[in-house]
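Q: Now give one record:
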Amino acid sequence: MNVTEVNEIGLAWESFGGPDGDVILLIAGLGTQMIRWSSPFCEELAALGYRVIRFDNRDTGCSTHLHACPPPDFGALASALQAGRRPEVPYTLFDMAGDAIGLLDALGIRQAHVVGRSMGGMIAQIMASAHGARILSLTSIMSSTGNPALPQAAPDAMAMMMQPMPDPLRDRADFLSRSSSFARRIAGTGYPFDEEAHRALISEEVRRAYDPAGTARQIAAIAVAGDRRDRLSAITAPTLVIHGCDDPLFPRACGEDTAASIPGAALMLIDGMGHDLPAGVWQRVALRIDGVARQAVSA
């Protein structure tokens, strides 16, 4: 693992594949770490000839955590948004997109294919709209546009996501049990849920860093991002939108709206997939990412 200084914060990152291939930059979702992009999935992409880079967003994993910024008051945040005011937040998704561009700069990478999941998809969308000359292709997975007319998350799944969790350093068993229950709820019905693998992943994330306040700051960044459809309409990079038909956090319509908002975007709907990237789809997803990347290089 490497740590590189970007925008006065340290970003932890890892690379797969040879140094000479086109770069695929993988951007993680809300409160999750780069290891959610599993090593076998990264190796699937690297085997197709790419240099694959995954990294921890600010406030997650081994990157810098903004402990000096208190967690947001969600009641005050919601009140400000409902009143049409833009509340002050520690940082925005645009700042996080700037981190990703800064990492490319620091590594001497002029252009890259960007792939983001969930919140990472939003960050990747902003990168493609604000830094179009740097983005060869865009793949947005299980993400959305901020369109307020879209269906909301399933209430029970949202309640599970927002409930306070036990401290894993004090009650590891309960923490892992509740984390697994939530992961199973959002995983979809078409692929086996590997609870043992999930528990091992969560345990590794806790070992690397556990910071619920950092996740809260990322939630605030999402909350103020607003409707991005006008921005998405300006994206010119070849784009692939991947979405699970069983996603309870961002329903299928969110993926369809993302594809409709980006000129020429291709939409890949996966039956039985929820808000997750199960092992059973890794090869198919890697090949489709390769397809849109090759489309960009040909163009």
User: Anything to note?
Assistant: DSSP finds eleven helices and eight strands in the chain. The mean pLDDT is 94. Residues 107 and 244 are 33 Å apart (CA to CA).
